[in-house]
Write a structure and sequence with these properties.
Layout lengths: L7 H4 L15 H37 L9 H4 L13 E4 L2 E4 L6 H17 L1 E2 L6 E3 L2 H10 L9 H12 E3 L8 E4 L2
Antiparallel strand pairs: 1-2, 3-4, 5-6
Length: about 180
């Protein structure tokens, strides 16, 4: 290099006298970057190790305690209706939920039919106070026949008005405001 020439990094990167471009790499910058990157990696690794230890200690403390947000087995089941082979499939009865998970598809009908027949024969009682809610079929038929049917009928003008109201149809032309047509 001649004495009157400036060094390459002061002249610029482009030398038009050469058919190729010279590559100038500042070694000091590469070393600074490498050392900084290494320090950053070491600090990040140390912080992650500290965070892992803190989380492990908290997990050991809360492992034995019951979690109030944890769902029970019943809450984890999908909503009704469920497939017959799905977990939690069953029918409610007076004894509780009868599990029908791995039974034949007809088992649900058979169980419900037995419950219905029992209700038809014995009636239904409220479990809290023992009061009769529904009567057996035979008793209900007898009670209905014992009532005087004449007391329930309406005669005269009031009966005719009820009959006319029952035959009236609300038409579309009145926009639902008045009953304008009659059933035939």
């Amino acid at each position: 290099m001649a004495k009157h020439e400036k060094p390459l990094h002061e002249r610029g990167f482009v030398n038009f006298e050469k058919p190729y471009e010279t590559n100038i790499i500042g070694l000091r910058g590469v070393i600074y970057f490498s050392v900084g990157l290494f320090i950053l990696i070491v600090v990040t690794f140390g912080l992650m190790r500290f965070l892992e230890n803190v989380m492990e200690s908290q997990a050991k403390e809360t492992k034995d305690a019951t979690n109030p947000m944890m769902m029970t087995d019943v809450e984890r089941l999908p909503p009704e209706p469920r497939l017959q082979a799905a977990p939690g499939y069953g029918v409610e009865s007076e004894k509780g939920v009868v599990n029908l998970e791995l039974r034949a598809p007809q088992s649900e009908y058979r169980l419900l039919k037995s419950q219905w027949e029992k209700m038809w024969a014995e009636g239904q009682k409220d479990p809290h106070n023992g009061m009769v809610v529904t009567l057996p079929l035979e008793e209900a038929e007898k009670k209905l026949l014992e009532q005087n049917a004449a007391n329930t009928t309406v005669n005269g003008e009031e009966g005719q008005k009820l009959y006319d109201d029952s035959q009236a149809i609300v038409s579309y032309s009145s926009a639902g405001r008045t009953a304008s047509d009659k059933r035939r």
